[in-house]
UniProtKB/TrEMBL annotation:
One of the Pfam families matching this protein, by short name: TIM
Pathway: Carbohydrate metabolism; erythritol degradation; Carbohydrate biosynthesis; gluconeogenesis; Carbohydrate degradation; glycolysis; D-glyceraldehyde 3-phosphate from glycerone phosphate: step 1/1
Gene that this polypeptide is encoded by: tpiA
Protein name (record): Triosephosphate isomerase
PROSITE patterns listed in its UniProt record: TIM_1 (PS00171), TIM_2 (PS51440)
Family: Belongs to the triosephosphate isomerase family.
InterPro entries, alphabetized: Aldolase_TIM, TIM_sf, TrioseP_Isoase_bac/euk, Triosephosphate_isomerase, Triosephosphate_isomerase_AS
GO molecular function: triose-phosphate isomerase activity
Top-level class of the enzyme under EC nomenclature: isomerase
Binding-site list for substrate: 10-12, 170, 210, 231-232
């Protein structure tokens, strides 16, 4: 793997200022586990405050409006996110595809806006249980990715892909190591074809879906798993740091 394992906490629609103490604890501890790269994506309301706490960890957003600043009531632009201290944005998450009917076309527009503002991107993909049970998971995920991988020359340097099977998110279920490895290898092949092997090697492929301290070690040691996108277990410093420790120990192994 080209870079350190990347462990990203997606706080989703959770967190008030009381969570800042967790962010501080995550940041201070991350300074002791430099073999992993650690980041959190709090809700918009906390981005700037978490950024001010963060000496070591990266801070990102969970969405962006696809366009310039202007008359769009209630929306937040990429430049506003960057100004608040965010360095990346999570796009294409299955919860946004489901809750807000986000299409690949819209996700593409968001990717363009984020790249224009200098942000890095974590692009999510993943199949539903119905698709997996029909034996079409790989085909579905690759099609989803093909439709939204940025084609801009230097975009790959700022790209991370996250494979998150929808049925594994928040359910306590995880895909088997064999299935994770097969999907990550298929994604790597697509990245190789799209960007060439050298550039593709710079793109980490994260796994997401019920990653916890007690399964992190196994998941993070699967070939082609370059880190984890963590929901529920990122909401407390204790459980999130359990995953960070597992990531830095996997690097030693
Ligand atoms: P959980 O870790 O809660 O399953 O969430 C995963 C996820 O959706 C991260 O983006």
């Amino acid at each position: 793997m080209a870079e350190r394992p990347y462990i990203v906490g997606n706080w989703k629609m959770n967190g008030t200022r009381a969570m800042l103490s967790e962010a501080r604890a995550i940041d201070r501890a991350a300074q002791r586990y430099m073999k992993a790269e650690v980041a959190v994506a709090p809700p918009y309301t906390l981005i700037h405050a978490v950024h001010r706490e963060a000496e070591q960890i990266g801070v990102g957003a969970q969405d962006v409006f696809p366009g310039e600043d202007g008359a769009h009531t209630g929306d937040i632009s990429a430049s506003m996110i960057a100004d608040a201290g965010a360095k990346f944005v999570i796009l294409g998450h299955s919860e946004r595809r489901a809750d807000h009917k986000e299409t690949n076309k819209l996700i593409n527009a968001k990717i363009d806006s984020a790249l224009d503002a200098g942000l890095r991107i974590i692009l999510c993909c993943g199949e539903t249980l119905k698709v997996r049970e029909a034996g079409e998971a790989e085909e579905f995920v690759l099609k989803q990715l093909k439709a939204s991988l940025p084609q801009i020359d230097d975009a790959a340097e700022r790209l991370t892909v996250a494979y998150e099977p929808v049925w594994a998110i928040g359910t306590g279920k995880t895909a088997t190591p064999k299935d994770i490895e097969a999907m990550h290898k298929a994604i790597r092949q697509l990245l190789d074809e799209t960007y060439g092997e050298e550039t593709s090697a710079e793109v980490r492929i994260l796994y997401g879906g019920s990653v916890k301290p007690d399964n992190a070690r196994e998941i993070l040691s699967i070939p082609e798993v370059g880190g984890a996108l963590v929901g529920g277990a990122s909401l407390s410093a204790e459980s999130f740091l359990g995953i960070v420790v597992a990531a830095s120990e996997t690097e030693d192994a």
